[in-house]
Amino acid sequence: MIEALNEALREEMERDERVIVLGEDVGVLGGIYRVTKGLLELFGPERVIDTPISEEGFVGASIGAALTGLRPVVEIMYADFLANCMNQIVNFASKIHYMTAGRLKVPIVVRAMVGHGRGHGGDHSQVPMTWFLNIPGLKIVSPATPKDAKGLLKSSIRDDAPVLFFEPYILYRVKGPVPEGEYTIPLGKADTKRKGDDITIVAISAMVPRALEAAEKLSQEGIEAEVIDPMTISPMDWDAIISSVKRTNRLVVVEYSPKSWGVGAEIAARVMEEAFDYLDAPVARVAAPDVPIPVSPALGKLTVPTAEDVIKAVKSIV
Amino acid sequence: MVKEIILPRLDIDMDKGMVVEWAKKEGDEVKEGELIATIMSEKVTYELHSPATGTLYKIIVQPNVEVPVGQIIAIIKEPEDRAEDLDEAVRRAEESLAGVVEVRAEAKAEAVAEAKPAEAKVEAAPTGRIKISPLARRLAREYGIDITKVKGTGPGGRIVKEDILRAVEEMKARPPPAPEAVEVIQLTGIRKISAERLAQSFKTAPHAFLRMDVDMSNIVRFRNVLEKEIGVRPSYNTLLIKAVAKALRKHPNLNATLEGEDKVRLLKDVNICLAVATEEGLVTPVVHHADEKSIAEIESDVRRLVEKAREGRLEADDLKGGTFTITNLGMFGVDAFMAIINPPQAAILAVGRIADRVVVVDGRMEIRPVATLTLSFDHRIVDGAPAAQFLAYVKELLEEPARLLI
User: Fold this and answer.
1) What is the DSSP letter of A89?
2) Domains of chain A
3) Which of B133, B142, B162, B164 best probes binding to A when mutated, by most A CB atoms within 10 angstroms?
4) A270 class by beta-carbon count within 10 Å (0-12 exposed, 13-18 middle, 19+ buried)
5) Is residue A312 within 8 angstroms of chain B, CB to CB?
6) What is the model's pTM?
7) Averages of pLDDT over each 10 residues, chain B, 406 residues
């Protein structure tokens, strides 16, 4: 996935000279996980900028640059550090387009790596997309495959709205086919990763491969699960979820943010509003427990939902 | 005087109630105004006090047995009461109770019988609430499945989609229960014949219908005039027969029958059948040569035939040779109706009741006695226009009944 992301950045910078990259260690080092590797050499220090350790400062600078017409791609490293620049994102990036009656746009992409699942500790393991999910004006995207990562990042860069792009660390090293040549994947459209008639599983971000693994195992027991990857969490592709649930009559939502007030809660509520009479069982949620993530790898592991957890949830309502 | 205690009406819409508890035993002494029992309706509980001083002679109604208001529930013995009067009072009270309780027992047996299949299938939740998924509830509504009779197989006994779909399959497989008959009546005799003939008539003769209102003011007066002349007041049926017979003379194409498929036979005689309801079924005795008879003669025929019909003494000749039928349901309050032609005749006239209705006369509203005539005719034999002319002529004759005398 790292390579796919790198390709997306390189292609977009080639395609559009307004695209710039900035963040901690994105230049000389090429990013701590090498997502921005080689960009400095190709595009020079004016477009690939190493910043001080000051998220509020360089995100604010990116917003300013975006207002002048550039299309900055900012790297936040651990998504936990979004807390440091939340004010810039929530009170400026998401509002300026609206507050200037559409005259100004903030076409920035904030890339943030979700470290959960690697024993990086409570302040380097959060999955904070839910922090931003009730901020209208932001788009929130998270890929689960290399192909999606590339296509979605390209679309995010081209989108005129501010986009938070969450990259799951546990999928960074995952290999997968990426189409040759130019392609994009539209924001706001879900991808049905597996067809099935017995239950719908909506899996968010790094939970997609685990949901697919669960679906394969369930299939051996005669339960055919449909796995939907929304890819864009906001705005959510409600049509895809509602129409699938109307067919399967059952729903499990899998995420790795804490369960309370999470993505699953919103999806469950929406399905009850729009498809209550189609539900044959209560909506089940699989999520991280409501605890700070322990630094101990053994304990930390317990806080990331597994395929087995998904299977258990499916069986509880089928 | 034996004192009977009845179940009183405790509130306005109470029609039954029960004794909750007797405060006294049989043989206990009671004083007037002393608490003797607690009773209840569906809404309230009430303390019942003794209406007399004496002994509680007999408890008729045991606690928790529901009885109607007014039921004697106990007998009080006053010192001067005679034993035979007391026993007679007890006997009557127990007799009236027996009727009530027996009915209840039957009702209960029915209720049990009805509930049984359900009991066998329902796994009642302890709270009495039915656990069912929203989808299953919606499907049950769409398919008309009674969810109280469906066993849930989901978690915790929840009724799920599958359970409803299974119930739908079972419902389809089961033939709908036929409405239960109270009694099976074998069609015999007149009933059987008329069933066959009416079915044949309605299937083969294309019926068409014409309807006209007739102002009966004059015919009402005319009857009174005739009464002075002939001693009896002729029935409306007599006058209808007279009018129809006269009209058939003028419009012979309704006094006809179909021969084969391509011949209409216009009949020489005008013989009018009158439909008469009897306990054995519908009969249609005939007034022969009605066109040649005076009103007095027709009246005498009608009386004779109706009486014979009611007594089941009609002879073959009384029933033969009819060429047209009149049927009158006015006496049952019917305003208008469409009759089935009496085969092989060409038409039948259905007569409704004479009722005061508002009619417009010379641009003003007036209240007149009006009857509605409905002519059913076999469209193979006669067309609408001549049938309408016939009906209009009948109407004219009834509205100007003096013409019946000519």
Assistant:
1) I
2) 2-171 (3.40.50.970), 191-317 (3.40.50.920)
3) B133
4) middle
5) no
6) 0.54
7) 82 78 88 86 77 88 84 88 86 81 51 43 52 91 87 87 90 75 75 83 93 94 87 90 94 90 89 89 90 92 91 85 94 94 93 94 93 95 94 95 87
